[in-house]
Each structure stands twice: as structure tokens, then as C-alpha cells.
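Z., the sequence and structure:
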Amino acid sequence: MTTTVQTLSTSTISILATAGRTLRVSLWATQAHLALAFGFAGVTKAFVPLDRVARLIPWAPDVAPALLRFIGTMELLASVGLVLPSLLRVRPRLTPLAALGLVVLMTLASGFHARRHEPMGIVVNAILGALAAFVAWGRFRAAPIEGGS
């Protein structure tokens, strides 16, 4: 029986290290952008007076105020969950869970906009959902963050 031993050259290792660094930077940038987007959207839906929200978000008058406030609260919590656990290294496994929550939310939102025949709403939700799925995959599998408890 023969065994083959492969050795990695230093240039190959350097390329792999650069790819890993690029992935980590891309994940952090995506997390930050999603946190900002959902943070602003969440604050608007959760705390701004309903008559003003109705002027900002065309579909807001068509849903129950409690549902609108719930969606805003979930977006706001997800925006915090995308960044803080990983940044503080306290339960960083919550970050991909927050991202998965956004994937679910964006899937449901796409269905809502499809029923209303709003193609731009579907496109925006699909893009945000795909970015959240990238964060979930990256933080679960490709580049998880090690941390305390």
C-alpha cells in the first residue's frame, strides 16, 4: 500500500489565508449593512407614529398596526443580533440564528408582495434574504466566530 503525501507550498497557503480573510471581511460588511438596513426599517415600523409610517411605507395601512409593530420589533432585534453577539464574542452563535430569522422574514415578505403584485418588493426582499442567507452560511459553516459561552 502506498500513500501520497501532498504538501502545500507557501504560496498556496498564502492564497488560502487571503481567501479566508476576504470571506471574513465580506461577512462583517454584509452583517453591518444588513444591521443598518433592518435597524432603520425596524425603528420606523416599531416606533414612528402610524400615520407617518403610512406615508413612508405604501403597504403599511393595509396591515394591522400590531403586525406592523411586530415586524419592526423583529427587524430591530435581528439587526442587533447580526452584530453584537459576534462583535462582543458573547454567544456568537446567535448571529447566524438572527440571519436565519431574517431569511424567514424576507421569504414571508416576498410572499406578501407577490400577493399584492409588487415585483420591486419581491426583488428587494429576495436580495436582503440572500444576503442574510450568506451571513447564516458564513457564520454557521465557513467562518464561525469563536467566543465565550
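The chain has one domain: 29-142. The longest helix spans residues 10-47.

Let me know what you think.
H.
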